[in-house]
Every structure is written in C-alpha cells, then in structure tokens.
Amino acid sequence: MNQIEILYPHSSIAIVSALFLVMVLVNELGFWLGRFVQEHTNSELKALTGSIQASMLGLLALLLGFTFSMAMQRYDSRSMALIEEANAIDSTMLRVQLLPEQWRGPARELLHEYIDLRIAAGKTDITQTAERTLENRKISELQHALWSLAVQATAEDPRAVTTGAFTTSLNNVIDTQGKRNALLRMHVPESVLLLLFVVFVASGGMMGYSSGLTGKRIVMPIVLVSLLITLIVFLIIDLDRPRRGLIQVNQDAMLDLRASEESILGSERKQLPE
Fold first, then answer.
1. Looking at the whole model, is its pTM more than 0.70?
2. 96-145 residue pLDDT tens
3. Which of 22, 30, 172, 235 could form a disulfide with 208 if both were Cys (CB 3.0 to 4.6 A apart)?
4. What is the DSSP code string of the chain?
C-alpha cells in the first residue's frame, strides 16, 4: 500500500512560510498568556519555566540535526546514484566496440537516445505523474530494444570477452536506473517532519510565555531565532525533494557523457563514405 504524503505535494516555500507565521502567532499567544499569569507566578516558577524553555530548545536542536542528517544522506545517495548510472552507461558505450560490426551502429544510437531520455527524466518534477509515466515507458522500451539487440549479437558471437562483456555492462545500466528510481522515492518520514514542526511551534510558544512572565518583550532575538530555524527547516525540506525546489541533484555527469558521445558520433559520421 502506498504511503499517503501530506506535505510533499505542497511547495517548500509555502510550508516554511506557514510554519513561521504559526510560530509568530503562537509566540504572541504565549506572551499574553504569560502576562495573564504573571501576577500569580513567583520567582521559582519563572526559573523553572526558563529551564523548560532551554530543554525544549535543546530538543529542537537535536531534531534539527537528526532530520538534516537524514535529508543530506538521501541527497548524497541520489547524487552518487546518478554518477554510478552515468559511469555504467559510459562503460556500455565503450563496450559497443566489442559487438559484431553490424550491431555497433544501432547499439550506439539506442544508447545515445537513452542518455537523452535519462537527462530529460532527471529534470522532470517528480509530482508530474503523467510526464514521468510517459518517460518511464519510453525508457523501458529502449531497455528492451537494447536487450534484444544484445541477445541477437550474442547469438552471432557468444564469446564472453566480446558480446558477453557488453551484455554484462548493459545489465548494470538497467540495475543502476532501477536503483536511482528507488532512491527518488525515499524521503524523510513525514512523521519526523511533523514532530519537528510541533516542537518548533511549541518552542516559540514557550519563548513567548517566558517573555510574558517577565513582562518584557524580546522581539528581535525571538524573530531572529525563529527565522534562522525556519531557514534550516526549508533547507531540510528542499534537500529531501528531488527534481523540485531550489536544491537539485547535479546532472553534470550525464551532460558531460552526452557531450562526449555526441562528439564521438559526429566523428564517426564524418568518416562514413558519402
């Protein structure tokens, strides 16, 4: 059963903006509540409130560090998966030269088209279901075409050091594509993010309550701390959102591979007799 995601369909900017506004509102409510009970609170209770506030901020810092680490690990895994896929495709392109001559041209053309599709898929927002479904179908068709070509080439030349090497490399290309797709679906659990939001808002309310007990506002420090924490939360959410948001997985490995193969294809076409 697919996990229902509440936050993921929404913009990260909208989420953190709403979170900041809620935090400011709760802080204000906490301040007025503190002012209301100020006359009935002694110095010992005020000191205890300060200790509770420090504990909540410490818990918030722990959750921020834990969640940021989770998001960063997933981002790094996606980046490494893209590099692994590009290397696998590059190895397969090189091993095309081991195929019988009649299969080299078709194999190279199919792989060149495959690279273009993988680059296009890497730029498609993961929430665009229709576009992603179409791209995945085209990629699957290309994989079947390449595998059929490998089977026919193997029937003609069954040696392991020639077509066998190409087939092994092609199998690695398919495996790395599946791994990369799986990593795209791995996010920080929303329950962790929601807990982080609750602690963040509660900490804001506690800071406002503590200010209310003293009867003095500390607007700038509270707003600054809230803004900084909100920016960290935005960074966590954006890191956890592949193919959308401000932080994207660098596709230079794929783009460099395409440029290299286009150069090779251009050279080979010039060498063909007219």
1. yes
2. 988 988 898 899 889 999 999 999 888 887 777 788 889 889 999 999 99
3. 30
4. -PPP-SSTTS-HHHHHHHHHHHHHHHHHHHHHHHHHHGGG--HHHHHHHHHHHHHHHHHHHHHHHHHHHHHHHHHHHHHHHHHHHHHHHHHHHHHGGGS-HHHHHHHHHHHHHHHHHHHHHHHS-TT-HHHHHHHHHHHHHHHHHHHHHHHHHHHH---TTTHHHHHHHHHHHHHHHHHHHHHHT----HHHHHHHHHHHHHHHHHHHHHHHHHT---HHHHHHHHHHHHHHHHHHHHHT-TTSSS-----HHHHHHHHHHHHHHHHHHHHS--
Burial class (CB in 10 A: 0-12, 13-18, 19+), 274: exposed
Domain ranges of the chain: 12-271
Structure tokens at 66: 């834990």
Residue whose tokens read 């030269």:
97
Residue type, 3: Q
Q: Which residue has the tokens 């007799």?
A: 273
